[in-house]
Amino acid sequence: MKRNKLPIIAIIPLALGLGTQAAPAQAFFFEDFETDSILDWFSTETGDEKDLLVTDPDPLQSDTVASWTQFQSLMAAPESYTKVDLDPNYNNFIFEFDFFAKPVNAAPVDNYLNDQYKDLEFQLESFATEEWQRISLGFTTSRNYVDVHNLFEKFVNVKFNSALESAGEMFFDNLEITPSAPPPPPPPPALPATGGQIFSSGGEVVVQVLPNTAAFTSKLCLFQPYYNCFTTNKDVGSVYNLGSFAPDVELVFGIEVQNTGNTFRMGPRERNADGLVHAQVDFLSKNTARVGFEDLWKCGYCNYNDNNFIFLGGISNNANPTINSITGNLFNIPTHKPFNFSGVATDPGVYDTLTYQWDFNGDGIYSDFTGQKGLWSFTESGIYNISLRVSDGRGGFAFGSFQVEAVPESSSSWLGLLIVGVAGILLPRSRR
Fold it and tell me: Of 106, 202, 208, 370, whose Cβ has the fewest other Cβ atoms within 10 Å?
């Protein structure tokens, strides 16, 4: 029977050693002692289930719970436990239970939990007021599964028992062990504003001229995907609709300084003759960017506010990569024989790093192989769809695939011998 209880959380390293992969199990859980299979097994062995039951000490509850002595007896039954599989890349899990104490002295509980993780401050007033509360203990293990009996034997019956032996009368209910999800991946590095890029998202692109500090007059031009100069920095307040562009195309804007004849483009410094970055791109929202240009050659101190513009509408700060080539369909590949595969992709984002991930078993999870090229083999014959996902680390993806026909190794060998034999029979023989 679940209750709403005050949570207490600790994180505990647990050295359980190495082991083999257990049968899949999502969680170990029993909600009520009197209906759980653990209790059923124990009562079969002892013949007396009532020895393991006490009435809930909370007058507002009517279910059955376990005392500390009964709880230890239950945890001594290894035949009743399962193994909880963990993420092999993140071997953490949560051990939770409901705890009720009539403390003679609450200090051992306080000291024990605080010793596990000293950076946390636990609120333990409910122990003194005799209320149920939920305790959540986070573990890290070197294994890729949790041996539940081993956990209780090493933690509950040893550490917890010795720490709380003078705490007073205690009761337990609703035990649960669940794999904890890995933390979310860190966000990708922020795109640089200085030297930044703008990409098309497929809609109409609108540009507005903002106030500026420039003494020079400069034309604002589109250099890629085609050349078009359409306004100057002196036309403050003017709005221009450039129309639509194909998605994932870089829109390279720049200025042509009329007083000096210099041209400066947005993007990395290599695009400019003086070898410096001359534009700063600040995305104010998903489809709105403020762009400031520096109009001086070798500006020294570049403040990027000589020419200011707002770009909005069909723009983005990222573009999807493109797979330019991938291995073609392969036929009559013997099982157990490695074959080569590869893919090549490009990305208009000059600051992006591409990751190649492959799915060979068709489960839709791109974790079988990581890399641009490699070797693979199949152990069973059949037609396999091989899928490639290329990601740029900023939410951009490209997908490609090819097929492999795997045939039994013996069949392909016999086929080759048969062809050689037939050829030998059909070849003309010289007369003596």
Answer: 370
The one-letter code for the residue type at 422 is V
| 322-412 fold | Immunoglobulin-like (2.60.40)
Average pLDDT of 36-54?
52
CATH 2.60.40.10 residue window(s) in the chain: 322-412
List, by residue range, all CATH 2.60.120.400 domains of the chain. 199-316
- What is the per-residue pLDDT for 17? 38
pLDDT at 427 exceeding the cut of 60: no
Q: Which CATH superfamily is 199-316 part of?
A: Calcium-mediated lectin (2.60.120.400)
Q: Residue 71 in contact with residue 38, Cβ under 8 Å?
A: no
CB atoms within 10 A of CB 125: 11
Model confidence at 143, in pLDDT bands (50, 70, 90)?
confident
